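Protein entry
_____________
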Amino acid sequence: MTTARARAHSTGRLPSKNGADRRSPGRARFMGVLLILMSVISAAACYLVFSWWLPSDSERYQDYRAAQACSSRAMEHGQTDCLSTWHLTVEKTVNKTSGKSSTYEATLKYRDSWRATVSFGNPGPLLERLAPGDQVTATAWRRDIVVLSKNGVRQNTSEAPRDELQMNAAIGVLAALVAVQTFVFGAVRLARPRGYEPFTWNPYGMRLLITITAVCLGVGLPAVWLGIPWWTVPAVAVPVVVCAAGLMHHRLRPRAAGGV
């Protein structure tokens, strides 16, 4: 009892309820290991984006752009890599926008033997004009309806391949930067379990994660709208985040040193 009281007076604070300090090296190292495991998962996600998802979407879009109209022989053999044309009837449409959820769909039928529902990303320019009973021309590719048209007005469906690799890259860069952040925060806890400031969640970690997300989306979305190459996303986002992380660390380091 005398020893415990002496320690309490010498440190200026009382022991925790469970007899262990919240900032104990064991707890810090455990959190460090968890953060490094999270960084491995995020790095794996980044690898999948750039090694599989982005190349796959790019190849699919290029194949779609190169596709030609199906010949009668190709139709007879059931080939799907060409563009086939079908004349369908609109059975019903759904054009509903409610808050954050929106539904844009058209149910199509071919005579009385076939029926399918196609979705769209927005109501215009064709879906909002359609009514039950309208005759439309559908373009199919690889067993998916990719375009609907009527009287010269065309609209891509949600299945149409798009050249939007910039957002694929933005998600991959986001995963990569999060992997770096969690690895560094975890490694610092393993190396300095008693003094890992300012590499804490509040405020450095939270601010850095918000910055990473904002920069990746803020670069990826305009890149899609402007149609610039996807590789410009990592070329711009990574230096911006690195500079922001350095500035935040420089500002927080004196505060952390003063609190030791």
